[in-house]
Every structure is written in C-alpha cells, then in structure tokens.
Amino acid sequence: MVLPYHLIKVCGNTVFAAQGSDIHSFNSGLEYVSTWKYPVQQTDESNGPSIDAQESPAQEEPPTKRRKVEPGQEEGPKGRRAKYKNGQSKGNKPAKHDVPGNERPFVQGLYATTDGRHLVAVTGSDKTIWVFEHDGVGNLNQLSQRAMPKRPCSLTLTHDNLTILSADKFGDVYALPLLPSPIPTTTTTSATPGAATPSALSPPTSGPDESRSASATPSTATPSAIKPQATALTVHTKRNLRALEHQKISLGRRALQEQPNRPQFELTLLLGHVSMLTAITVGTTTTATASTEAGGTRVREYIVTADRDEHIRVSRGMPQAHVIERFCLGHEDFVSRLCMAPGGRAEVLISGGGDDDLFVWDWVRGELLGRAGVLEHVKGVVGGEAASKVAVTRVFACGWEGGVEVFVVVERVPALFRYELLEDNTLHHRETIPTPGNPLDVEGIEVPGAAPRLLVAVYPSGSTDGSSNSSFIVLDKGESGWRQTSVENLPAGGDIAISETELQKMLYSTETLRKLSDFD
Amino acid sequence: MGGKKIKKDKRQKREDYRAAMRKDDISELPRKKFYRQRAHANPFSDHQLIYPPHPDQMDWSSLYPHYVVDEPQDQPTPPAPETPSSEQHDLAPLRPKRISKEVEVADIGCGFGGLLIALAPTMPEALILGLEIRVSVTHFVEDRIKALRAQNHEAGLYRNVGVLRANTMKFLPNFFRKAQLAKVFICFPDPHFKARKHKQRIVSATLNSEYAYVVRPGGIVYTITDVPDLHEWMVQHFDAHPSFERVSEEEQEADPCVAIMRTETEEGKKVERHKGQKHVALFRRLEDPAW
C-alpha cells in the first residue's frame, strides 16, 4: 500500500517531508524537488545477509520499491527481543540489528539547524542518526550516518547548531557533534552500549575522551578482566555457590565471543532518566550582567527532557549537564511533547501527553502557569463516548499578529486544535479545524502580516466523499475559515508491502506509552 | 498436588498473620517469615506504585502523625465559595496536612528496616524515611515501626521514622524537593553482577545527578557493600561525578552513622555471620559550580 507522509520539517525555504523511509523535498511553492532514499543493501536474500554492508551506505540508486517490512519491526516487542538476544549473546547468532540490508526502517524524526543548512534525520529500528548538508534549494548531501547504542526517541540541536542532543529509549541523553570530526577509531568513544555505561558521563573539568574511557569500569573496558563479581564470600547458599562455579566456567568461554560493539564516533553521555525519554528540547535564559561584553547580557542554555514517568527535567546545558536545576512536575500520565513558546517568551514551555490537558510552565522557575483542556475538545470531534483519553502527538507553536498560536495534534483524531497563548501566559482553545484524515504532523510557514500557512501530513481516511486523498495538505486561513489545498504532483513511491494494521501500529505509537494499570 | 496445597496454606497463614498485625492494639514485633519476598525487583517495570505528582502534594501526615501541625480552620479559605467551576482548572490541588518538619534522612532500599530503627534514637530531631521497592518487606517495616512506637509510647521513641514503598530510581524527585536531604544511605544494594544489568544498579553517573539534586550541599551519601567490585563501582562513579567528593577515612570513621550502618543493617549482620568483608564509602555533596 502507499504510505502516507508522516513527518514534515521546514528548513529555510524548503519543506522536507518523510514518507516511510524516504525524505522528499519541496520548494516554497510546494513543488517537488528531490528525494533521499534510505540506502538499501542489494542483498540476495537466498544468500543470507552480507557482512560488509556498512561499506557503501550512500548509494544513489533507488532501491527496489517493494520491500517486505517485517511485521512489528518498528515497535516494541520485536525490538525488545532483538535487544535481549543481543545482550545475552546465546549461541553464535548475529544480533538482529546487525543484519543489514533487507529492511528499510521508517524515518522517525526530522530536525533542521536554525540556519537551514543541515537536516538531521533519525531512522527507527537501525537507531541511526543521519546528517545531511542542505544546499538551500532542496537537495540533500548525506554527510554522516551514526548508529546509536539505543534507539533515539527525540533529538534537538544546541543553539549554536554544533551539537546534536539525542534522547533515547533507555533514558539517556547523548551529545554528538553535528559534523563528526575524523578521529582514529582506536581512541574512540566514551560509551559502551550494553550498560550505556554511565561512567562516560564526563566531568566537565576532565579532559577529552581519554580520561573518560579511562574511568570505564574494568569489566567493560577490558574483556580479559571479565570475572564473576560475586565471590564465595558474597554468596552463601549451596545453590548460589554452585551457580557461581558454573558462571566462572561459562564466563571464560563467553568473554571470547562477546564483541563489544561500541560506536566508532564521538559520543558523550550527558544525563539520564530511569525511564524512556519521549522529548528533548533546549531553552535559553538571558540575564543582564555587570560586564559590558556581549551587550551586557549573558545567555545560558538548558536541556529540558521529558519521560514516560511524568517527569519534565531541567538540566544545565553543556558542559554542566550533570546539574539538575529543577523539575516541572504535575503531569499524571506520560509526557510526549515539549514545545518552547516562540517570540520573546523564552521562559514558557507547553507540554502534552497522556493527560487530559496541556500544561503551561514557567520552566525557568519550575512553576505551573496553567492548563488547557484537550479531551473536552476531542470529544467534540469523535463523540463523547468514543473518547475517554488523549495522547498528544504534536504541539507546534508559532507567532501570529504579536500573539502565539499553538496547534495540537492528538493521536487518531481527525482534527487540528488551535490554541492561543495570551499575554498572561494562559492558553485558550480557539477552534477545532477538521482534517481529511488523522494528522500525523504539522508545521507552519510564518507569513508576514498574515495567518501562518500550515503544512499538515495526514493519513487519508480513504473516504469517497470527494475530498482529497492526498497525504500532504496545506491550510490557509481565509475569511470564512481555513482553506484546504492538497499538494499535488507528489513523487511516486512509498509503496510497500505492509498491512494496514502494521502501518497503523507504526504511525500511532504514542498511546502505547500509557502504563497498564493491571499488574504489580 | 500436595505441594500446591501446602503453598496455599502457607499463603493463608501469612495473610491471617498480617491481617492480625494490622489491628491497632498490637504492639508485638512482626516476624520476618511472614513477610519474605524474593530479593530482586525490576526497577524498570511499571509497578503499581503510589507517588505524588509533586513533592508539595505528598501527604507525610500518615507516616509521621506526631508531627502533624494543627492548622486553624479559618486559614486562607477562598472567600467566594462559588468560584467558576469545571472549565477553570484547579491549579492548587488539595494541600495535604502539613507536618512541622521535613524528612532529612533517607535510606534507599531500607529492606527490613534495621538501619532505620537503629538510627531513630540517635537523631531524634530528624525525620528519617526508609524507601523500599518490595511490597511485603515495606509492610514488615510498617508493622515494625508501629509496634516499636507502641512499645516505647512513654519515651516517645520511633516517632521520627517512616517507611514508604517506592521506586527511587524513577521517583525520587516526586518525594523530595531540591536540596531537602542531609543524609542518604545506600546500604548493601543489589549488586547486579551481570554487565548487562549494570544499568539497574542504584549508583550510576546519571542517577548520581538525581542524588545531587535531592541532597543539600554539605550533605552526605553513605554507601556500604560486601561486594568489592560493587564498592569499586560506586566509588568510581561518585568520584567521577563533579557534584560529589569522597569523605576522608578519618572523618568517615568518626561518623557515628558509619558504625550503625556496619552493624545494624540486616545485611550487615548476615555478612558478619558469614565473615565477609564490608566496604564503606562516604561522599559529600559539593556546591554547584558557578554558572
């Protein structure tokens, strides 16, 4: 079936949109420019996986269109099993994600530097961060491809556009340079993937990589040092002692097989939650200083992270990311989106997730400023009985006539919700804009003096009432409401063998963050 | 067949015993055998935990009933009872009953509560809280505290200890505000021997940032273990963390809490019986660097 567009990113004058594992670009007039396709290894499936697949990731050839995507490869169970298998390294089976070639993971995130010169993409099951150079008119040149130790859930860039911050499924935040410097592979990396070794968390006072890897634990640093950490002094029962004996024997054997697959690039662990991270963003504060340099102001950067266990954490920016300044606490279900208010309201943060409301925070003081209902407006779209909970998937804010407009997408609800953030930082629902299908992403182009032009990726509902079945629509505010046009002449492609159910599972994954309440 | 039946009888006995212990007038100390639970809990799974969304909403009054402040009823009740309803969301949820002090000492993974009980009389001015992830072990400590309070009613002892079931690896900041704690004890933590499980260790570079958040500058984190490699691991990670420095050996040995930690924890006693080693390390929370 043909995949819908599911991610949109405005980058300078260009609009990028992801469809499955491809990224298309459009100019400001929304005419198609070009496509980046996820490089697929030409493997002969009967020969099994080829080993040296990492060698030529950047082929320009379009891959074969029809690719069987394994059911569930993007989502939980499978990925989890792969990880498990990898860690246990039972037998000689290669780890799941080491087998390259015959799968094309979906693009899970698109991010752009503020100058529009670089685009960063994340792909799912291969946990890879891709950096592209953008020529300004929609053509991408792939610069790097880095496979992270754990699957990145959300990325952001520091304000100087030099560093990518990646928040992953295991709760860790890593910093990696946007443009990797060529470093010899021997001195690499501070982090081993297995334990996401927190020892890599670098003291800001310490030097570069050497000191960090030196602080790695003996057991992870040198495979030869692997030995059971229990001793006859620490285990006492007969059974445990016997287990210890067995462990000693098998460890020796296993140590030889276990190849630490540490990433071969610069990677710094900044901070971590013991929870799946769902969103990361950076905020800045500007304070006046006594000195006159830099106009008498000092800008400080903070890292704001949100997790599945209702926390929003504010940490200092690099190089003091180990200092937690405060938490913004109040959510009672998962947090899935963070959105800094634009337009001189740098201290205002809007968050949404599995709660019935959006939360508005002064993140600089850690105070809840207000809440704005979402569920009540969702009920207006899908009917009161059908909706008992919401999962916010997008919060997009932009300036408009001096105010701040906030557009919200809720999973599986065919509408956009427009809110206005008033001067007093209260958030108010203004209107519900119906869409021809469930929105998957929303971005806006600010048009001077006019309402923002909204770009919406929708999963077409497939209705036959004459409305468009395009997956990429534009909304312009007219005098009598929003005028909807669909972007035509979309490039062909994105046609893969995948069932509707599997696709939905991939596109609608936010609700799965909610905790089940029936086990202990 | 028979095994199943025995098991059921055992469970029944256990439930009966514990139900009896819940009754108000019992001052008999609980017996451990009715509260045993397997030694490990997965800190990553979503247990059915109760925790406040924010430390301000934590109700401490049931844990420390003797410290509850009697607030006069005529305090700031909103003047207009007919406040605009439903649409306007209540920003300040019901404030729980206040207590006159704040918890300042936390025992993370308090187990059967030996340390808590030993510490309580030595620092009568401080509120001490044990945190434990295993449900029935928490119940044991609850019953133990209740019994001790009843037994020492005259002297007013053990009113300053409490216990909570909690997953501190996830929810420490839900209970404590920044810099609230003066002392944190981490005694005989689960060693998680396998490298794959190191992320589950209670001490790690990323978690140390959370301890730094709840501990005030000058406050102390106490660690003790019988596993040399774990000791090394904890020292390494606290040493590497810019918010902590190791406390010198002299100062460590002069601290009365260290002796108690060595001898009064259940694990400490067990290690003693087996003639194992005990490794102690203390770390002081430093001031945050200029920013």
TrEMBL record, chain A:
PROSITE patterns: WD_REPEATS_2 (PS50082). Pathway: tRNA modification; N(7)-methylguanine-tRNA biosynthesis. WD repeats lie at residues 328-362. It is found in: Nucleus. Required for the formation of N(7)-methylguanine at position 46 (m7G46) in tRNA. In the complex, it is required to stabilize and induce conformational changes of the catalytic subunit. Belongs to the WD repeat TRM82 family. GO terms for cellular component: cytosol; nucleus; tRNA methyltransferase complex. Its main location: nucleus. Residues 185-225 have a biased composition (Low complexity). This is Transfer RNA methyltransferase 82. Residues 41-106, 185-233 are annotated as: Disordered. Keywords: Nucleus, Repeat, tRNA processing, WD repeat.
Automatic annotation (TrEMBL), chain B:
The keyword Cell inner membrane does not apply. It is found in: Nucleus. Residues 1-11 have a biased composition (Basic residues). Pfam families: Methyltransf_4. GO terms for molecular function: tRNA (guanine(46)-N7)-methyltransferase activity; tRNA binding. S-adenosyl-L-methionine binds at residues 109, 132-133, 167-168, 187, 265-267. One of its GO terms (cellular component) is tRNA (m7G46) methyltransferase complex. Pathway: tRNA modification; N(7)-methylguanine-tRNA biosynthesis. Its EC number is 2.1.1.33. It catalyses: guanosine(46) in tRNA + S-adenosyl-L-methionine = N(7)-methylguanosine(46) in tRNA + S-adenosyl-L-homocysteine. Residues 12-31 have a biased composition (Basic and acidic residues). Keywords: Methyltransferase, Nucleus, RNA-binding, S-adenosyl-L-methionine, Transferase, tRNA processing, tRNA-binding. The active site is at 190. SUPFAM superfamilies: S-adenosyl-L-methionine-dependent methyltransferases. Residues 1-31, 68-94 are annotated as: Disordered. Forms a complex with TRM82. Catalyzes the formation of N(7)-methylguanine at position 46 (m7G46) in tRNA. Belongs to the class I-like SAM-binding methyltransferase superfamily. TrmB family. HAMAP family: tRNA_methyltr_TrmB_euk. This is tRNA (guanine-N(7)-)-methyltransferase.
